Amino acid sequence: MQRVLFVCTGNTCRSPMAEAVLKHKYPHFDVQSAGMFAGYGQRVNDNARQALENKGITCNHTSQPVTRELLNWADLILTMTDGHKQTIKQEYTSFDDKLFTLKEFVDDEGDLDIVDPIGLSVETYEHTLQEIENYIDQMVAKQEGNS
């Protein structure tokens, strides 16, 4: 079973949505999420939770920070922005071969970032969730094509 770690800023919006989608749609993956500036135990943002529930996806995630142990655990580390990726590269070593932005991993051209919806409407979260889900579907297709 492949282990995937999703990373965003606070681990309350984008990365937990990505974790929830991957768990829901592709349960054969082992998945966690974490935040570059997250603490432990914060609940998922209410709008993120609502966007997930609107798609029939349950999310009981609580936040956790990125740690060397989590990075070691993961077979694949997918960040929501290039800034997250660069911060991991600067703060930790020896993860370059498994560290990508989610968009970069599926060979998307152009902007490599999934925009943070924090503080915006549920509709914006739903749009962000759909974007994340589309890239996860492509990521899984790529991974299963390489198996």
Describe the protein in words.
GO terms for molecular function: protein tyrosine phosphatase activity. The protein has 147 residues and is an alpha/beta fold. The chain has a single domain (3-145), classed as 3-Layer(aba) Sandwich (Rossmann fold). It is 44% helix and 13% strand. The protein has helices at 14-25, 46-54, 68-73, 82-91, 102-105, 122-145, and strands at 3-8, 30-35, 76-79, 99-101. Strands 2-1-3-4 form a 4-stranded parallel β-sheet. Strand 1, helix 1 (14-25) and strand 2 form a beta-alpha-beta unit. Helix 1 (14-25) packs across helix 6 and helix 2 crosses helix 6 (122-145). The longest helix has 24 residues, at 122-145. The N and C termini lie close together (11 Å).
CATH class: Alpha Beta
H/E topology pattern: EHEHHEHEHH
Query: Mean pLDDT, rounded to whole units?
Result: 95
- Morphology: globular
Number of helical stretches of at least 4 residues: 6
CATH superfamily: Response regulator
**What would the CATH topology be?**
Rossmann fold
Structural class: alpha/beta
CATH architecture: 3-Layer(aba) Sandwich
- Our estimate of the beta-strand percent is 5-15%
* Widest sheet: strand ordering: 2-1-3-4
Q: How many structural units, i.e. domains? A: 1
Query: Rg to the nearest angstrom?
Result: 14 Å
Unreliable runs: none
Largest sheet: 4 strands, parallel
Distance between the termini: 11 Å
Number of strands: 4
Which bin fits the share of residues in helices? Answer: 40-55%
